[in-house]
Design a protein that fits this description.
Elements: E1 15-17, H1 24-41, E2 43-47, H2 53-67, H3 71-76, E3 87-89, E4 95-96, E5 99-100, E6 104-109, H4 145-170, E7 196-202, E8 212-217, E9 223-228, E10 235-238, E11 244-246, E12 254-258, H5 260-265, E13 275-278, E14 287-293, H6 311-319, H7 339-350, H8 352-358, H9 360-366
Parallel strand pairs: 1-2
Antiparallel strand pairs: 2-12, 3-6, 4-5, 6-7, 7-14, 8-13, 9-12, 9-14, 10-11, 10-13
Helix pairs in contact: 1-4, 2-4, 7-8, 8-9
Bound molecules: 2-oxoglutaric acid and fe (ii) ion.
């Protein structure tokens, strides 16, 4: 790093080795590196993660097969059927920052029973089962996929819970500091919070066509655990000066990044970092990826909680440098509404067709002039 460069002007993404956690010396090294990654970069690679390599590799093998299902089968589980925004979305149906994303995807969630009843706020309806037949492709068309994916999700969920404890250590907070965001439990139990996940295909760019795989954005939730499921580069991360830094796939690793909810509750200490995906070049095979988005309790109003950081920890924010202009839309609503409502706003903006069908009142508020030709989305 040149002398006048700030830590936030990173030019590569740090790699943290989960296996360091098995010894006390290793763990303190990991926690130090984690603190740097959280404050200055907002992204890290996690090597040797506690998710079975065999399960990760099998899921990667399944991925192209999922997109090769007959179009009719994919349409039968399309997202517009689902109040939970689960299911299939074809290329061109999603919008980020007013421009169409060139990606095809299936959205799923960790197992959860919908708790919504008449009179409850709409956002309670956002969480619900993704294991009903309307969402999963037929078993006989892709045998073993659902079972394998659920095993994978259970392991990543466990990892995300353990990671939450490490965050508290990295910020020198009490072990249970993040408990209020997960219904009072330091290590949230499966089924308490619903996490979201997608399987994404980025087709090659057409000659002269758009290369926006997904436009610049912040993730909205707490932490994201991304499995890059092909060997294409394309994911890029924006540093403090606004420069785009490549985050190419590294086999056997997760890319972990910070969402706006975590940034908000840490008073900006943990950086949510703007990122995007460029489509593969014309003629190339598609790029695939599988993000897991960790969420927090729907009822939590983030402005009600103030974590008490030591002054020397808060100072880390000053030394990283000033946040420059980024290309992503912000999540300013976290100060105003419960977290679940903020997520719902983001979902309706990204998928206005699903919003119009299942959340007509909110749709009208967000799009008073009706369905956007090209909406303003997250
Ligand atoms: O596909 C990727 O590598 C990243 C996807 C992403 O950033 C997202 O869906 O939020
Ligand atoms: Fe993202």
């Amino acid at each position: 790093m040149a002398q006048d460069e700030k830590p936030g002007d990173f030019s590569s993404i740090p790699i943290l080795d989960w296996s360091l956690l098995s010894t006390p010396e290793g763990k303190s090294k990991f926690i130090g590196e984690l603190q740097h990654a959280l404050v200055n970069v907002g992204f890290l690679y996690l090597s040797n993660p506690p998710v079975a390599r065999e399960v990760m590799d099998k899921l990667i093998e399944y991925t192209p097969r999922l997109f090769d299902l007959p179009q009719e089968e994919k349409e039968s589980i399309r997202m517009t059927n689902s109040p939970h925004f689960f299911g299939y979305t074809g290329v061109g149906a999603e919008i980020t920052k007013g421009k169409t994303d060139q990606r095809e995807q299936f959205d799923f969630g960790t197992p959860y029973e919908c708790k919504w009843k008449p009179g409850d706020p709409d956002y309670i309806k956002l969480w619900g089962p993704s294991q009903v037949c309307l969402i999963w492709p037929k078993e006989e068309l892709i045998p073993g996929f659902k079972d394998l994916y659920l095993r994978y999700l259970a392991q990543v969920e466990q990892l995300s819970n353990e990671f939450t404890g490490l965050l508290a250590e990295a910020f020198e907070l009490p072990e249970d500091a993040f408990a209020p965001f997960f219904s009072g439990s330091t290590k949230p139990k499966p089924g308490v919070v619903q996490h979201r996940t997608k399987i994404i295909k980025y087709p090659a760019r057409k000659e002269g066509g758009s290369d926006q795989g997904v436009g610049p954005h912040f993730d909205g939730g707490f932490l994201t655990f991304l499995l890059q499921a092909s060997d294409h580069p394309g994911l890029q991360v924006q540093n403090l000066t606004g420069e785009w830094i490549d985050a190419p796939p590294i086999p056997g690793t997760f890319v972990v990044n910070i969402g706006k909810a975590l940034e908000n509750v840490t008073q900006g200490l943990a950086r949510a970092t703007s990122h995007r995906v460029l489509s593969p070049p014309p003629g190339s095979t598609p790029r695939y990826s599988i993000p897991f988005f960790q969420f927090i309790s729907q009822e939590v109003l983030l402005s009600d909680f103030k974590l008490e950081f030591k002054p020397e920890i808060l100072k880390l924010k000053e030394s990283r440098g000033q946040l420059g202009v980024v290309d992503s839309v912000n999540y300013a609503e976290y100060g105003l509404y419960p977290a679940g409502h903020v997520t719902l706003i983001g979902r309706v903006r990204s998928h206005p067709d699903v919003g119009e069908r299942h959340y007509p009142d909110l749709f009208k508020q967000l799009f008073p002039n009706g369905m956007p030709a090209q909406g303003s989305a997250y």
